[in-house]
Here is the input.
Amino acid sequence: MFILHPRLARAIPSTARAFSTTPTRSLAKMQLIGRLADTPEVIHTSTGRDVIKYALGVQGGPRDENGQRGVSWFRVASFLPEGAQRELLLSLPKGTQMYVEAEAKMDKYQAQDGSERTSLNLLQRSFEPLSRPQNREDSGTTGAESNTNAAEEPMSGLGAS
Here is the structure.
């Protein structure tokens, strides 16, 4: 049992003091560094808002017998308004390495076969292109291989948030 000296007990308030007057909100945030699966695309919604969608491949885990790491694929949505940020995101080619901060949310839905499924939805809050892939003449690699093995060309002066 812990016994507090009487003089110290008076110095500690008996109730906890709140640091904010706003209600608490849950926070689910992800930070990803990966390569674009393809050029981001604009989807026009029925409500008139445009959403930019893209997939990001993130390497991780142990290496296999060929020395390759597994790739996890994440689908990301962005509601960037017209402007430089949006144009930069839409101009990034397949294989570009990016840093993305996104809000994460798990949603449940009914699949066509009647089973209940869960999906991870990521809403981009900020991004930073880190490097572009170099143009490669050999077409010996395809898809995920070209995303994970592409030589890099650093991007300088392109900040995005």
Remarks:
- The longest helix spans residues 84-91.
- The CA atoms of residues 21 and 90 lie 39 Å apart.
